[in-house]
Every structure is written in structure tokens, then in C-alpha cells.
Amino acid sequence: MDFADLIRVTQIGNVSLKRQFGEPVEGVICITGHHLIFSPFNQKKENELWLQHSFVDITDFRPGINSSKVYLKLKNFETLEFGIVSAEDAQNMLHSIEDLCNIGDITLRYPLFYRPPFQILEDGWEAFSLERELMQMTQLSDEWRLTRINEQFKVCPTYPTLLIVPMSIDDDVLLKAATFRQGNRFPVLSYLHPATRACLLRSAQPLCGQGGKRNRDDERLVNAVVSSGRKGYILDTRTPPVQKQHQTKGGGSEPKDHYAQWKYLQAFLERPSALHDALVSLVAAVNDTKDAKERWINRLESCQWLSRVQEALSAAALVAQCIDHESAPVLIHGQEGVDTTLLVSSLAQVLLSSDARKVNGFAALIEREWVQAGHPFRARHLKSAFARSEPGSEAPLFLLFLDCVWQMIRQFPCSFEFNEQLLILLFEHSYSSEFGTFLCDNEKERADYSIKSRTVSIWSYLLRPELLQELMNPIYEPNTNALWPSVAPQSMALWEGVFLRFQIDQSPKQAMWKEIGLIREQDVKLRSKVNLLRRQLLELQKEAVENGLLTPGESC
């Protein structure tokens, strides 16, 4: 397919662009295979708008007498309003963007054509090597080993090629156990607590069915991580009705009689489709500025997005408590093990591990627990809050994860090395990006399309020193303790920096944090100067004593 076949008009003159918090700007539109480019008249080139077509969620057209309006609703919840004199040009632009933003062929996506204008100091694809990350975990205990059973993805297409499993379990047992889990996602190690040595495992649901089928190899694998006389916890992220529904279709939960060393916990997280409904309702509410105050608050409550945030944090805190307080192993699963399972396991690690609250550790966590663990970014992010795709596979699980992390930052502002700008950048790039990190659904797909050799990793961009300094928290103080956030409903807050940034000007808040950063830098400089002066004073006192000008113990 040629991009030219989809572009009905390449250039439109005398166009006005209206964005939030600004006056309309006149300029020219150019449409290419990957971008809509708006060049304002009499302004510098850096003021141009380069909008990837894949960042457009839905389009709208409204004809007028003097000019027609084209509205582009973006996946980050912003709406762009273009005024175009010719109705024919407006419709041609609209149809071109609709076709270009819905291209499904990965080989035609922009990351495979992108060439970075900056020097890559470190290859982001290699910065967080899965083998290195997993080796660090196995060094904490000799009870775990690396397995390459999934080499060439021959066992599970949604798992990476390297996995950590109990030392006592050989690969033959793993092969048989895999057949008992949906998608062959057998239990693997996700996190090992450095102090308690309690482990966090994740998997897909067991294929028990209504007949309560069992698999002795799966039982052996799961029970291998529980010491004699101890108990572990299996956390099911599904609500009981959903769990029963899956059981009628051959899934379900582990038969208690055959997993006697395990206690069962329920997280009551809604299915992905319900989460997307909550996001759609939330964005519709915040964009409706005509609502009266009371009605707006009622709409905000009825969308239940904050309830989803509260439920996810509660589940993660429950897992963290089992691991940290009871030194007990935890196995998490939902249905497929690629959505709510990854959400809870990654949030629990942010609570437990201070490394996950640092920039590099957080990046490694996302790579390990989301990208390489098989979260289907392409399917879940086909559309955002303004539209639905034909398969209806959208679900903002990753945005929910980032929102939960923001809630933690809000409650523990000094415990995170990074600020919310990092979270916002990750949210936007996960939906549309020039980088290949979030382009596919799993590692097998990335290998099939040679994504790592043909695209740039987002970490090559975000971890550059000149950008990284803008993402750092100026009031960060290292905290090695576990975090225990309040999950009470009144402790949850709407993430203004994402959901209200196009309704409420964020520049005053950004200016405040910039000023705090400058004050902190000045404080560090002054403290260094004080320490230098103290050392100089001690040296002068010592010299004065040696010359008989002061007696020992006397200060000047």
C-alpha cells in the first residue's frame, strides 16, 4: 500500500488552529504519510505542530457559512479545532486523516521510519537487559534458576524467552504445567523480596473447568515455593461472577483440595472492557464545562474511575503486606495474565522496592513487567477515550498503573526520584510514539518484525541527561522502606496533570516546581559552601594551635 493512495489533499492554506489556553493561529497544513504538519504564518519553525496520525482518536466535521470546522480529538484527551475556508478541503483532510490514523500494518507505522535527531548515548533496548535483571534476582537466593524453555517462543508466545522458576523444577515439569494454564502462561517469578525472601509469582488462570480438573505438574510447580508448614496466597484479580463465568468456559481457579498450602484472596478488579467504559465516562465528564458543580461531581463519581484506582492500589497493598509482613509467597492471576495481573504485580513492586521508585528502576520495571511480560499495548491502545475500535479490545490498564503511581507520589512526595512529567510522557508515548517500545503486543511480535533492530527505544530518548533533569523530583529523599498508602476513598484524587490539563492551565504549577528545583539547587550549593568553610576553619584552628596563637580546645 502507498501512503499517497490515502492522502486526498496534501496542502491547505489559510487555516486557523485553536487550542486550549490560546488564541486562534493562522497557518498552512501539510499532510504526509505519518504526520499532519501545521506551520503558523510569521512564526519560528519550532512553533510548528507535528501531529502523528496515530495520535488521533476520532475526527469530527462541522460545516459552516464562512468556514468549516474540523475537530481532531487526540488520545491524550486534547481537542484541536481547525477552521478551513473550503468545505471540500476540510472533508478531504478529514477522510485522509481517518484513513491514515487507522493503518493496522505494523511495517507502515512511524517508528520504523523514524531517525532520531539526537545522539543516542545508550541503546535503550540494551539498557534494561532482561537476563541481567533476572540474574540479579537469582543472586538473592539459590532456590531459583533461569530457564530458556521458551526459546523461540515455542511454549508461550506472550512470555519472553528467559524466565525464572524454582530450582527444584525441571523443564519437563514446566512443559506439562504450561498446558494447565491459559495461553501456556505457567507461574514464573516476578519479584523476590531481598529481606524476607518471599516471592511474587504471576501466571494465567488454571484450566480447571467445572469438573475441577487437576494437573499434578502445576501443583508441584506452585507448591515448590512454599516451605513446609507455611502458607502462601493466591490472589485472583477477578470478581466472583467473572471467575464463575470463566469456569463455565474451561477456566476457573485452583482446586483448594490440591493446593492445600495456599489461601485464596480476591481482588475484585473489573474486567478491561469496564475499565475502558470508566475512562470514556470520565473524559466526557471533564470535557463538559457546561455542567453545574453538583452535577459535575456526580458525573465524576458515577464514572467510577477513582474506584478502579482505589481497587488496584488496595490489591497491590494486600500483596505487599503478605510479602513484607508475613514473609509469604504470593501468586497473582486473573484470566489471561496480561492485564490486571501485571497491573497488581508491578504496583506491589513499587510499594516494596525503593529501586522501583528511582528513574532507572522504574524504567526497568515497566520493561520487565509490562513490555516483556506481554501486555498487549497495540490491542489495548488502538483507541483512547473518544472512540472504540472494531474488535473492541481497548483497555487503559497502563494508564491506570501510572495513575496509581501518581497517587503514591501525591501521598509520598519525597520518596520518588522522578516527577509526574515522566508518567505523562509514558502515557502519551504508550498510545502513539516515534519509538518502538510500545508498538507490539508481546516479545514474539517484536521479534517477528525485528522491532529492536529497526526502531529506537523510548529509553534512549527519556534517559538523556538534558531531558532527564526535567523529569527529576527536586524534593526527592531516598527512602528504603516499603510504602503503605492510604486507600480510603477520600484519599483518592483526580489526576489533574492528565485529565484536567486542557481545562485548567498547568503552567503555574509547573513554574512552582521549577522554582522549588532552583531553591533546592541553591540549598545544595550553600550547604557545600558551608562544609567547605567549616573545613577551612578547622585547618586554620589547627594552624593557630601549632603557632601558639590558640590553646588546644580553644576556638576562635
Any overview of this molecule?
The chain is of the alpha+beta class and 556 residues long. The chain is built from 20 helices and 14 strands. Helix 4 packs across helix 5, helix 10 runs parallel beside helix 13 (397-411) and helix 13 packs antiparallel against helix 14 (420-431). The relative contact order is 0.10.
Secondary-structure blueprint:
Layout: E1 11-18, E2 25-31, E3 35-40, E4 49-52, E5 56-62, E6 68-74, E7 79-84, H1 87-101, H2 124-127, H3 130-138, E8 144-147, E9 163-166, H4 171-178, E10 188-192, E11 199-202, H5 216-223, E12 232-236, H6 240-248, E13 262-266, H7 272-287, H8 293-303, H9 305-325, E14 330-333, H10 340-352, H11 359-371, H12 377-380, H13 397-411, H14 420-431, H15 443-448, H16 451-454, H17 458-462, H18 465-468, H19 496-499, H20 507-546
Parallel strand pairs: 11-14, 12-13, 12-14
Antiparallel strand pairs: 1-2, 1-7, 2-3, 3-4, 5-6, 6-7, 8-9, 10-11
Helix pairs in contact: 4-5, 7-8, 9-10, 9-13, 10-11, 10-13, 13-14
